[in-house]
Amino acid sequence: MRVSVVIPTYNRSRILVRTLEALGRQTLIEGSGADSGGGGPYEVIVVDDGSTDDTAERVREISAGYPARLVYLHQENRKQGAARNLGVRRARGEWLVFLGDDTVPASDFLEEHLRARDGVAQEEAERVVAIGYTPWAREYPRTRFMEYVGEEGWQFGFSLIEDKSCVPFNFFYTSNLSISREFFRESGGFDEDFGEYGWEDIELGWRLHRMGMRLVYHPRAVSYHHHPTSVRAFVRRQRRVGASAWNFYRKHPEMVDFLNVGRLPRYRLRDRVRMELLTWICAWTEKQRWPDLSFLYPDLMSYHYNLGLLQGRQEKR
After folding, report:
1. Of 212, 140, 216, whose CA–CA distance to 177 is shortest?
2. Which of 45, 135, 136, 314 counts the most CB atoms within 10 A of its CB?
3. CA nearest to 242, candidates 289, 184, 310
4. Would you state the torsion angle of the CA atoms of residues 115, 120, 124, 128, taken in this order, to the nearest 10 degrees?
5. How confident is the model at residue 157 (pLDDT cuts 50, 70, 90)?
6. pTM of the predicted model, to two decimals?
7. In what order do the strands lie in the sheet with 103-105?
8. Where in the chain are all domains bearing CATH 3.90.550.10?
């Protein structure tokens, strides 16, 4: 078997069904010939991370007549790193594709992930990890803020990639990524000590980087993101990510500058009042054409990330 798609999920049964349906229409099925593991050219492994909705029932329904091997696994809520590790332990494919449960892939998604290594020698291909392009789904209105975090900012930042053939390790985005199963296993997999969202993927990317990973960007491997966000929602995310970053720093003190741990500012009361006011104004104007306050987004996101760092430092003392 060539590819194992691993999808961790938690209480998103509706969009998960759309993701699975799209995976069932992959062009990799057509003309793929014999494979190395039996059962078709690819499999899909869904790891339910303790959902309380109808995820299990919906996956069972769609499994009838599914064109690929579809595996459903369940675990107590242990977050996405542990869920992906469980999925990999059951995987049969030569290549792993990590996909978000809220990202719906294009029909040639898996083929494009395999093509990302065209022209690379076999011995080098084992160390090549590919990320694809994850734009916002077309059915959602795009605000200035969504464009910022997707292309220029803190969520993906695809427009910041200068060399597609040699991408920095911190673009290791597991919502749309392919990696050799053996290379992944050699790394030891995701660190399951990250209890909150954020950094478990970048931390693995850092370890793989030190093992000789070459991260490439293959924008033709497209998967559409169905999780619109807002200034207020992303502010909450930034604080969680900041708190989790302190955990990353304790594991890897050499990342002090990358994580901004050594340059944490001291926010006085007037600074906090000013930044909270600007956050409220940006949230109020993000869907309006005027005034355009997007120039404030970088400072606002840094501020709320730093507050999370400060919280994480206090909690870990």
Report:
1. 216
2. 45
3. 310
4. -40
5. confident
6. 0.91
7. 69-75, 42-49, 3-9, 95-99, 176-180, 128-133, 214-225, 103-105
8. 3-225
Distance CA 254, CA 113 (A): 32
Which of 267, 252, 255, 253 is closest to 305 using CA atoms? Answer: 267
Superfamily of domain 3-225: Spore Coat Polysaccharide Biosynthesis Protein SpsA; Chain A (3.90.550.10)
For the stretch 142-150, contacts whose Cβ atoms lie closer than 8 Å and that sit 24 or more positions apart, written own/partner, are 143/230, 143/286, 143/287, 144/286, 144/292, 144/294, 145/229, 145/230, 145/231, 145/234, 145/282, 145/286, 145/294, 145/297, 146/228, 146/229, 148/294, 148/297, 149/229, 149/234, 150/225
Residue 166 confidence (pLDDT) above 80? yes
